[in-house]
Amino acid sequence: MTPPLIDLSVHHQAKGLSDRIALGFTKVLRWTADTFFAERYGHRAVVLETVAAVPGMVGATITHLSCLRRICDDKGWIRTLMDEAENERMHLMTFIEISKPTWFERAVIIGVQWVFYVFFFALYLISSKTAHRVVGYFEEEAVISYTHYLAEIDEGRSENVAAPEIAKRYWGLPEDATLRDVVLVVRADEAHHRDVNHSFANELGGLPTGEIAQCPPHAALEPIWKKVA
């Protein structure tokens, strides 16, 4: 499976207070990740993917409840956001197999997840536009981080180990797939989420939605009861 080509230069220019708040918050998170993990990109991915899997679930939950109250159509937002949350969770499961986080890092994951969930839930209630813009900027940074990770692999500073089985099954990677192949498809996923969330924020702000990067094909995760039935 060849990952789709993506535009690495995409950046939404901040316009107005909402965008500036979203960009500023993202830059603080980026500085924190750079300070804590430096160039340990595998471990950085484990913690950041824990955070990245939160917004989709929060957005889907609040949108679902809002549509129930208003008795209106969701315009496909709920499924899109749920798919994003699931996709990010698969990123996490993949990099856990690669990086083998320590107990301390697992404790950090738990703490970060709770703090970010509460924060993002409140932000989404206050301004869903700002919340989606935060995710759009967050995914811009993810694309940059995975591009740096690829450079680390290509220049021999990070070992290009074999891809975990979970990644091969999910993205349909060949048996001889490596970490580099995984990072390529994950980066393409992040570019897709970047464009989707910026488009959602634009739609909420009455702006043109723009183009959306293609998402790499991946397996549909079926519930266990369907396999048993």
SSE order = HHHHHHHH
Class by helix and strand content? Answer: mainly alpha
How would you sum up the global shape?
A: globular
What distance lies between the first and last C-alpha atoms, to the nearest angstrom?
31 Å
Show unreliable segments: none
User: What is the oligomer described by this structure?
Assistant: single chain
Number of helices: 8
The number of distinct β-strands equals 0
Strand content: under 5%
Average of the residue pLDDT scores: 88
Main beta sheet: strand number and arrangement? none
Q: What is the helix content?
A: over 70%
What's a concise summary of this model?
This protein has 229 residues and is an all-alpha fold.
Report on this model:
This protein has 229 residues and is an all-alpha fold. The chain has helices spanning 16-37, 41-70, 77-99, 103-126, 128-154, 165-171, 179-204, 224-228. Helix 2 packs parallel to helix 4 and helix 5 packs antiparallel against helix 7.
